[in-house]
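@channel anyone free to eyeball this complex?
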Amino acid sequence: MEWLAILPYATPVALAAIGETIAQRGGVINISLEGGMLMGAFFGMFASFLTNSPWLGLFAGLAAGVAITAVFAYFTVYLASDQVVVGTALNLFALGLTGTFYRARFGQSGQILSVARVPQWHSLDAVTLLLLVSVVAVNFLLFRSAWGLALRSAGEYPKAAEAAGFSVHRLRLGALLIGGAFAGIAGAYLSVGITGSFAENMSAGRGFVAIAMVTFGRWRPAFVFLASLLIGFADSLQFRFQAYGWNVPYQLMTALPYLLALIVLAVVGKGTVAPQALGIAYRREK
Amino acid sequence: MKTRIGQLALTVVGLFAILLLTLAAFRLPIKDSLSLIVHGAFGDKFGWSRTAVKSIPLLLTGLGMVVSWRGGMYNIGGEGQFIVGGLLGGWFARWGIQAGLPPAFGIAMILICGAVGGALWAALAGLLYVKRGVEVVISTILFNFIAIQFLNWAASGPLQEAKHQLPLTDLLPDNWMLPKFDRQTDLHAGVFLAVLAAIAIWGFLYFTKAGFKLRVVGENPRVARANQIQVMRTKMLAIMVSGALCGLAGGVEYVGTAGQLGAGFSQQWGFLGIPVALLGGLHPLWAIGSAFYFGALFSGSENLARFTPAGTTIVYVIQAAAVLGYVAMKALNDRRITPKEAG
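replying in thread with the prediction:
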């Protein structure tokens, strides 16, 4: 088998996870990542369907991911609301919105939908290349730029960031929006990259797998990318295990990425390298 | 917002406004849509029955969410616990029918199997949290997808129907189903069970020592630790009771409505318990009202789906908007509804 063939399977989770790494370095767990991917998948497909351009599809996916994440950011950063409550509500919102639009526009009949896809060249395409570039770029952004330093301080000890003159709220907002853009493209890649189609609840938990991969990759873009490759490998197996002559139920192979994500979480545990203020809303003192 | 009545009035007005706004946002004719929804939910005895039948799993999974979230465990794996509960019940039914068990005993055992299956499935996530610090929010969702595949495998493998043609289990015989009130409608005795469960959970949370400890752990783990409450053990209890309720919901759905298991067994009931619980203010008795409201919306929107392009998924949007509205209201009142330290 060609090793490069894993890349497209890994790309949705990897892109979302790289974006989520930025958000988590700033101290926020974007629980609505799943919803961002689903929005990206639907609006990416829809734009590609309307314009026949997969590039506009990717852009629409990005915009949809940013939009839903902006709502998440408003609630969790500015209103200091609970990240799980808001994230869960937004995931439900994305499921309802995309499902309703999809049924209204394309019917419930299971009509075969085929939209223009991103052109591929030997398992490589613009999005997988973007992924490879973003691993390096995000690493630079987080560890070699002034903004990255400030952001990481907001994730470790927000009071210090605030004392140094940064706005923790604005840093976190920025990190979340960048993460939302990644999630949107990741979702759009599912529809206009891999399948050229859409199905209800298409993201199928990949947003949560991506969050798991951020933990497994210890909040470092390169490790997060490698962790996602492992998931991509597991994901690709369900389409290839029969060719290998393995006599296992295919349901086991479908469940494998989720099982693997759970196992790695159990093995690495939370550890001590997590950003110290992860998941804790910052309230400015009055 | 000072009094309970004011709060209730505000919630009712808010929910109605959200319903209207959502219909308008999807460019549905508001007056006609509303009458379709109301007719579908309460138009005749079939409507009332549909509403009640949908409220049952919503209330049971909603109660499950009340218990775990009150205890600081963000269980969002109700779906998986629901499925595993139903699955264990299905496994028991297959064995019990062959063994010729008395049906009443069999039904009771299926319900117990449901609760046990859900509790054990939830316990896996609980153990990962307690032993390895794995966030429950993440693990329970991952367990959902594994449960779905487990169900698909069982329904096309060991539990498949006798003819081995469809990925479904055998249909339960009529006398192995919960009794129905009327031959023509689907409303079954599970409705009593759900309301009893709400009262039982209310009693547990507010009138027992264990329930008190659970609420303290959820609200302030430091206070709990200072008072020598075993935080991890309490959290384990919270998620297992939660799983038991979601699994029971699966068992009730199996012997009450579905009668067989297959890929379409759970219509997101486990997940939808979350908005039910949140809109019920994480209180078991208010959850009854909240489950009934959403049950009505679901059965009403089924009627809406027959005449407009909008389907039941529109209810998800309404639920999400309602939760966000509730969260915003709470934030503006600067009161916290959820535990501070949660997994």
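from a first look: The first helix of chain A runs from residue 6 to 25.
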